[in-house]
Amino acid sequence: MTQNIYDDPDFFHGYSQLGRSVHGLAGAAEWPALQAMLPPMHGVRALDLGCGYGWFCRWAAEQGVRSVLGLDVSHKMLERAKASTGQASVSYQHADLEQLNLPECSVELVYSSLTLHYLADLDRLFATVHKALVPGGHLVFSIEHPIYMASRQPGWIVTEQGRKTWPVDSYQLEGPRVTNWLADGVIKQHRTVGTLLNALIKAGFVLEHIEDWGPTDEQVAAVPALAEEKERPMLLLVSAHR
Amino acid sequence: MTQNIYDDPDFFHGYSQLGRSVHGLAGAAEWPALQAMLPPMHGVRALDLGCGYGWFCRWAAEQGVRSVLGLDVSHKMLERAKASTGQASVSYQHADLEQLNLPECSVELVYSSLTLHYLADLDRLFATVHKALVPGGHLVFSIEHPIYMASRQPGWIVTEQGRKTWPVDSYQLEGPRVTNWLADGVIKQHRTVGTLLNALIKAGFVLEHIEDWGPTDEQVAAVPALAEEKERPMLLLVSAHR
Prior knowledge:
The structure is a homodimer. The first copy, chain A, is an alpha/beta fold.
């Protein structure tokens, strides 16, 4: 059972204040890059693994998908998602992604935003997703970058000389990382870049595009705080097809 | 024209003292992992891009390759390689990998060890290599890891509390990195993990295995200094096929 931190009251409260929660996809700086990796959406059957408030599902419906099913482990998130969604092509369902079963060859697209780093067993999920996709179907996801997660003390180091750098240690030590982000004791699963990509290959996927996301100059000009995301890779974006 | 630092007297002298120069493949801790990524060698035609002293070429000859051609930009390295090699299946040739031309569908394996990070234009080389491989042929290489190369000041940070960490900054700033390793002014080319892997995909390769190399526990027990390579990813190993 994956930790359901999103139903922790402190976490949920903090999360609901984030730019991406208030402004949806427009509040997620990586969205333009991730969107560019999506296949044409019209008429496809899609799944959103870790749908949260349903921002992607509603956007997908606007693009004319045939159907989109949002899955999440958080009851509170699903409640909010359902209340915010009026489109008939969107549905939501409670699911633990580590126990997920899906009908074979049933969707053209599986999408996931910043969810997979919570899962200890990705091999099972990737195998399930691969079988659920039609041949040629796409998996497109974002995940916290292994370099962002690896350190025992993940936080900028600023030296007396004013040098600012991101620390990397424990990189080869795969497994849980406990952080205090929005709430205490949030558990994420660190794996190397190679382990993540090899899990996709082993499940039968062909890798199409890998991007250590960083902000554009225009994004930094608009939101100067984003500049630090040019210094370290915080997110990894991946697309692959069956 | 790629910088030919290996013909710099100071660099050449320093390089010739390294474990991997004295002991060959057995002196390179990543060799067992890289070797495990190679296809069966018997009867194949192989290329070694950046062959150095010819250790890999001689090993390949021992495995029964049909032929192996070692290419290098350094005249001194090639001289030493030729003097050390007696097998008829091995030949050497001077080449600037950024200007390389190869006959199409002429080899089953292209190998490269710790060379590609010196090249500014990988797209051209990957396209050339892809065409030179027979369908199903393999490209297997090691390269300095982007996380090892990114920082403006690549060196361990040790805090007053004794915490040791590897610095990451300037990650999105792709391009030359000048270091003083064995000689002053060694120029390497930093690119993100995504840029490297996407260049392979764009050239038509199918990614097979990606490994942020780290030492095994047995290696650390035998050579305790290797322990720090568990903390940061220093090398990236990649295999792909046409």
